[in-house]
Design a protein that fits this description.
- The protein is mainly β.
- α2 packs antiparallel against α4.
- It starts with a helix and ends with a strand.
């Protein structure tokens, strides 16, 4: 795989080096805000949404911008065009005669976090959580060697995702009323771990973003670590969401006004990984996904087809390069024993300037004609509307979104090892679109299981509304209201084929109150529900604000009020929490 990538890059450079070209291979993160700005600009211009498969190269973003006629925008929105243009123009601060550009950067942020209910004691119980928090220091290095290559590396000084997770009180970083993003100070004053090591909350898993990028005017390939996001959903996407902290990947795309193709392969720790650096990491999980995007009907309609397969092995089996076929149909590999294919369809339509309607539909499992009843259906849907309006020197945006995911979406897996025991209770867990985020704190490996797909996972019903007002380069104010129902199924839920003793297992629908494949919940021999769980219901009201104090210096605030009924699917476990995040940041 490495040799093939090297040959591909060398040939590409040789074929294109004879042409003069400005290096536009800088990669913009999915967290940079550049896509949201470009999307708003397209809605203001009355176009269907731009390509939402990030991260994006500067060349792709410049092409997007060229499709918007500045003069066709309302006069009140034309200054926003200039603002977006300034976001995607990069020039190295140090340029050398031999066509080498370099740039060093530093972000310094001081943040404090406060909440009123310490029962919200883990990262996923904060509305603005781990991936929303800035490191106290983030050193950056960028290089532009020749006209076709770009390299990026960052070294962040930050808190890890958690420690002391086995303590009854919960995660040490979140169980206290007050906390900061200062690892040592934090450990001394607020969250000293049980072993007394004040560096226990220091994250040694750097870098989170580091990669090389090469490309041309209409193509780009990158290899390294970064976040991924495929789709224009506000609460997440059914295929790939930016909530997963990092992917170790190789990604290729080619892009034009009417068409874009993307292919990515990402590797994750095996399902059997342990919380120790002294154990062999046998096996793997590997995601292969490709995406076709079309723009049609006078640039009013966008259609997208995504397909992915999550492969796994726990016995050290090597990944088969034959499973990477840019135009193959992954489902037809027929590898249900160690893979799960997924289809996601997307569409969006902008009927008039300032208004867009969009949707996504995920298809994980279904029974076709003649197949019989083998596995329960596993689908997901997401739909919403977005609007943008230029108002008094700023841009007002709003969205309404609905999402529903089936109980067995993303988590399908069979027995990995063959067995002749039809009553075997060794159900498959962790063989779906969940992955282990593996980080290290001092001498301890931390494993957090997260979905790489929809942020809130399976067995969810969600309604979300957002209202935002931005004065470019000055201030940004936002309000969000969310209602979420989560059934008893999650990334750790057990799954089994429908066969023999499970032929008559009942269908379950979102939100669930029991798992028909969990022996403590359901007895298939008698059809009896043994144990039921409550449906967790949450209401979140969120206010955010950001103000540009001076060039490179900004302040930000997030205040979130959460009302949770039956927290953790425990009946009558009703909790409220006021969560406040306050910070100041300087970028050099």
């Amino acid at each position: 795989m490495k040799k093939a990538l090297s040959v591909f890059l060398m040939v590409s450079v040789l074929l294109t080096s004879v042409f003069a070209y400005t290096n536009e291979q800088k990669i913009y993160s999915v967290d940079s805000g550049v896509y949201e700005a470009m999307e708003t600009l397209f809605i203001l211009a009355g176009r269907s949404l731009p390509s939402s498969s990030g991260p994006w190269s500067e060349a792709e973003l410049q092409l997007m911008l060229s499709y918007v006629d500045k003069d066709s925008l309302p006069k009140s929105a034309q200054s926003y065009y200039d603002y977006v243009k300034s976001m995607i123009t990069s020039d190295p601060k140090q340029q050398y005669a031999d066509n080498l550009g370099m740039q060093f950067g530093l972000d310094a942020a001081l943040e404090a976090y406060y909440h009123t209910n310490t029962k919200f004691n883990d990262y996923d119980k904060w509305f603005h959580s781990y991936t929303d928090r800035d490191p106290v220091l983030n050193f950056k290095f960028e290089t532009w060697p020749t006209d076709r290559f770009y390299g990026y590396f960052e070294f962040a000084v930050q808190n890890c995702i958690g420690y002391d997770v086995s303590k009854p009180a919960g995660n040490g970083l979140y169980m206290n009323a007050i906390n900061t993003n200062l690892p040592v100070v934090n450990g001394i004053l607020f969250s000293t771990p049980s072993n007394g090591d004040i560096l226990a909350d220091f994250d040694w898993t750097v870098p989170y973003r580091a990669f090389v990028s090469a490309g041309g005017e209409h193509w780009n390939v990158m290899a390294g670590r970064d976040k991924l996001s495929w789709g224009a959903g506000e609460s997440g996407n059914l295929m790939l969401s930016s909530s997963f902290p990092k992917h170790t990947m190789v990604r290729f795309n080619t892009f034009f006004e009417k068409f874009k193709y993307s292919l990515v392969t990402a590797m994750y720790p095996a399902t059997g990984s342990e919380e120790s650096q002294y154990h062999s990491l046998d096996g793997f999980k590997a995601l292969v996904a490709h995406r076709l995007e079309f723009n049609m009907l006078q640039n009013k309609v966008g259609l997208v087809v995504n397909e992915a397969c999550m492969f796994w092995s726990v016995d050290g089996q090597n990944f088969n390069l034959g499973q990477i076929n840019p135009f193959g149909f992954m489902h037809n590999e027929y590898v249900a024993g160690n893979g799960n294919s997924l289809l996601v369809f997307e569409g969006n339509y902008t009927p008039v300037k300032g208004f867009n309607v969009y949707g996504q539909f995920a298809l994980d499992e279904f029974s076709g004609p003649g197949e019989g009843r083998t596995n329960p259906a596993a689908h997901g849907m997401l739909a919403g509307v977005k609007g943008a309006y230029a108002l008094d020197g700023g841009i007002l945006t709003a969205s309404l979104e609905f999402a529903k995911t089936d109980p067995f979406l993303y988590i399908r897996g069979l027995h990995y090892k063959e067995t002749n025991d039809e009553h075997n209770d060794d159900y498959a867990v962790g063989y779906g679109y969940d992955a282990l985020f593996r980080t290290i704190s001092c001498d301890r490996i931390i494993l957090e299981r997260m979905f790489v797909t929809y942020k809130y996972g399976n067995d969810v019903i969600l309604f979300d509304g957002k209202l935002n007002y931005e004065i470019p380069s000055v201030a940004n104010f936002g309000f969000e209201a969310m209602f979420l129902e989560h059934g008893s199924m999650n990334a750790n839920s057990k799954w089994h084929m429908y066969r023999k003793q499970y032929d008559d297992a009942p269908d379950v629908s979102t939100p669930t109150t029991f798992n028909p494949f969990e022996k403590d919940d359901y007895d298939p021999s008698t059809g009896t529900i043994i144990n039921e769980h409550a449906v967790e219901k949450s209401v979140v009201l969120s206010l955010t604000a950001q103000y540009q104090i001076a060039k490179g210096l900004s302040a930000n605030l997030a205040a979130d009020y959460m009302i949770v009924k039956n927290m953790n699917n425990v009946a009558d476990n009703n909790q409220n929490d006021l969560q406040i995040s306050l910070g100041i940041k300087y970028s050099l």
